[in-house]
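Run log // design_07
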């Protein structure tokens, strides 16, 4: 009876270790996703700044009569 108890306890310990590994992998994946999201948002913000700069430059040129 005691042997089967230890066998069951060992199986639960094994399952716990597997969940720990899965949890660590999920944390790693979340960190990678967060890093990629930050990189994408940084690029998006740079594109918005570039567009603002281009619009402002075009507006200044238009006011200066460069397109007439």
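design_07 sequence
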């Amino acid at each position: 009876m005691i042997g089967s108890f230890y066998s069951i306890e060992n199986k639960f310990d094994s399952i716990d270790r597997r969940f720990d590994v899965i949890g660590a992998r999920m944390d790693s994946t979340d960190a990678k996703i967060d890093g990629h999201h930050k990189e994408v948002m940084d690029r998006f913000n740079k594109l918005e700044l570039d567009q603002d700069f281009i619009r402002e430059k075009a507006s200044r040129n238009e006011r200066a009569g460069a397109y007439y």
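The two ends are 96 Å apart (CA to CA).
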